Amino acid sequence: MNNKREFDSSVTKKIDTWKKKFPKEKPESSIIMSLRFIQDHYGWLSDKHLDMLADYLDLAPIRVYEVASFYSMYHRKPVGKYVLGICGSISCMLRGSEPLLHHLETKLDIKLGDTTKDGLFTLKEVECLASCTKAPAMVVNGTQYVEDLTPESLDKLVDNLRQGEQT
Amino acid sequence: MKQNLVCYRTFEEKSPSSFETYKKLNGYSTWEKLLKGKMKPSDVIDAIKAAGLMGRGGAGFPTGLKMSFINRDKEGQKYLVCNSDESEPGTSKDRFIMQKNPHQLIEGMAIAAYTMGATVGYNYMRGEFMTEFESCEKALKEAKKAGLIGKNILGTGIDFELINIIGAGAYIVGEETAMLESIEGKRAMPRFKPPFPANYGLYGKPTTVNNTESLASIPVILDKGPEWFKKLGTEKSGGTKIFSVSGHVAKPGVFEIPMGTPFKDLLELAGGMLDSRGCKAVIPGGSSMKIVPGKIMLNAEMSYEGMQSVGSAIGSGGVIVMDDRTCMVEALACVIKFYEDESCGQCTPCREGTNWLHQNLRDILAGKGNIKDVDLLVEIAGKIEGKTICAFGEAVAWPVQSFIEHFRDEFEFYCKNGYSKVKGK
Fold this sequence. Notes:
heterodimer; A: 167 residues; alpha+beta; 2 domains; 45% helix; 11% strand; B: 425 residues; alpha/beta; Rossmann fold; de novo design (two linked rop proteins); five-stranded mixed β-sheet; globular
């Protein structure tokens, strides 16, 4: 978004709608969701985005920074187009999440936490997703659940996402 | 055994989440009775107390008593908050209420809010629950269209605004005061108590926070009567409970069953043990609760008193089953890694202690353990427990203490030999 110090109007529209969920005198209540709207639009949260949100909500920057650094779904660095978050908590671990994670590292030729060179995939380990009865489970881009994972189903998912990019 | 009698009662219907389905099951009838003055707020509290409903999120605090802490006649804004942050490892139950029976949650929230004199209610869902959020939003729209939620409901002058919101990833949000901080747009760091939320809650106003399953149980309790509900369960544990059974079972799943059901019947519902292996151990209430050896669990019943008698608790109903191939050192390391990641960092014993525990376990797993490490783990856990602002400290300590109490030999073996007693070299 170059040097423009303004959010895209689609983003501000969403922020303005969300603000109505809270008392008028409490704009800070909408920080959490506003950051998601910004991230969904721009891919990640840069310092500039955080400053801009503070300006937009008329809050001290620290109010936005402390939230952005606390919650795990925010990306403070650029990530791939598809962020694959494999659950590593106990129910998924018991059903073999660790070998699956290694399978993905090999398949994508990256280490946990890294992004593929083509910028398509970032691999993350996440904590319990409340999918324990459909373990092992993962989320793609934070909110799309993929459950009952096997090496085959993971291969298919990655291949399909790659293919979708080419067409 | 009858299943799905309360929160999951729409699940066998054709379109479980629809307004029509819920109306057909006598849905919103209690809310209408309250609105029309045919039932008083005090009747609601009395019924919930008589039904024996306890908080289904994990702490098991009596729901009726909690609701009575708010003085509905006191002037000023009050709030109800529904805790749909479902994040306790092993727990996967509330999301299905929101997916497939959202109207019952809406009615439960409306009844609870009115009973406490709250005109605004927030339903806070965990950040990943976009499907659930959309389902709740759709249902809310239908309820508003029917005139059951909003301003001047059915011309009675009564207002109730229900607002669905969604978080951004933090286990600690499930702690009730951390949730209030989060709604206020801050880091989800638990507040020191007292003051309790009933006195100083959201935006400093009187607030009650209840779990999704607790709130969604309320309309059925009032419609069918507290006696009906209570009798489904045991004397001390009224009603039903939703258990999500995960880990080494043949058919992991979510089951709403009467309190007091023997564990072995629940295990059977989940298809029995995976590959017909032996049941080594079970964490019966989400990973924060104490682990129980399998042979003890197989003779236990799933109720508050039943789980207390085997040294654990029902917690959130997240039943994690481990078979005889499980290495307890690895399992504990996995559980503790979770708490290390999710500690909010506010209290030093928890922030530092979870890190020490995990480091110690990692050393043991790397073959660098020392026999003294086993006692050290217990010692560190004891120095976190009871020394933190919120119950997260106990949630870290209890797994450590109970894993080592029951499976000390495996920890000592790993320290001495540098490899797992169960898995070998």
